[in-house]
């Protein structure tokens, strides 16, 4: 490197975070994105969900199907796929698993002889009732920093995106 009596122009040094903030990067741009914020919130809530549903042996999709059947006895696979936005092949294995656990049963649909209605068994009904109570507590814990009105607004705004 040649040396000269003139000093080289100063290069701008990268910004160094103040002590205690070294792990926090400038995420202002990301924080303006709906997807980024929804994902960050989902990561927190989904971890809580997995932890609290472990005693029931339920994943999010299992809970969703059982809850829908609790509130819509006799729903068809087609209706579940439409409501949950999942593909029929994915639901087939899920229904088989829930059936093998004794949580649901298939019966002829009362209005459409070609369709099969899905119903909770007494064990499935008892399980989802307990699980729904646990999820309601989880929701209260996860949204504790929101007022009731803010929580309602958040849900309504999120639904505007996907409904």
UniProtKB/TrEMBL annotation:
Signal peptide: none annotated. GO terms for molecular function: DNA binding; DNA-binding transcription factor activity. InterPro entries: HTH_MarR-typ, MarR/SlyA-like, WH-like_DNA-bd_sf, WH_DNA-bd_sf. SMART domains: HTH_MARR. One of its GO terms (biological process) is response to stress. The keyword Transcription regulation applies. Residues 26-163 form the HTH marR-type domain. Residues 1-19 have a biased composition (Low complexity). Residues 1-22 are annotated as: Disordered. It comes from the Bacteria. This is MarR family transcriptional regulator. It comes from Variovorax paradoxus.
